[in-house]
Amino acid sequence: MPNKSSPNANQENRPRRRSTFPLGKLVPNAVTLLAMGLGLTGVRLALDGKFELAILCIVGSGFLDMIDGRLARLLRAESPMGAQLDSLADFMNFGLAPILILYSWGLQSFGRPGWMAMVIFAACCALRLARFNASIDDPDRPVWTRQFFTGVPSPAAGIMVLAPVWMEFSGIVDLRTGPFLIIGFVVVVSGLMVSRLPTFSGKGISTRVPREMVLPIMVGFAVLAASLFAFPWLSLTVLTSIYILSLPISYRVHRHMRQREETNAL
Prior knowledge:
Blueprint: H1 7-13, H2 27-47, H3 51-74, H4 80-105, H5 112-135, E1 148-150, H6 154-160, H7 163-169, H8 179-194, E2 198-200, H9 214-230, H10 232-265
Antiparallel strand pairs: 1-2
């Protein structure tokens, strides 16, 4: 009798098709890894005493952090792995790298209090990111609250905590003569990260703008880019001041929206 091959044998003899993955879905994660590389490069530059370039690396990683999430949504490449990678990169870029740069610049000369400030900042950043990840999939969270973060986000805090360094470069003030001012500033920024203060997230901004506003917005971005290149330290000081001034505004807007929801629920 002729030997009949079994179905399993036929399946084994068939050439296996290689699984493929859309290249576009790799772009957001690649941007996240690029941002991580910039953050670590900033630490290396700080260890070499090149603090100006180190700060610019952190600022650059902050811009990339703004881009990767939007790219993921635009390309429909959101995934649990991407979310975890983004959180790990945020901790590296804005929880460790900035405070290590600040420590190399001046905190290490303050001894144990400087080291304690560094540990407090890193711990608060880790707690802030853990709380953020735990609240993403909360089904009971009202839709309007997605327009706000709880506490100052880690990228803003990571750039803000470097203010003593660039304020010295801009000639505004040299805080290394007052060590406890720097330590107190680090503790305040750390507390803002883990606070319950609502801060604008930018997610409520419409992705479509009126046609007549396209040119003014592009000109505004061009002016911002030119000012960052021409006057980086003054521009960072102005932008940080604007962000700090927006914190009480975000609190008032959040309270108004919450009161309106409670009124509608009655």
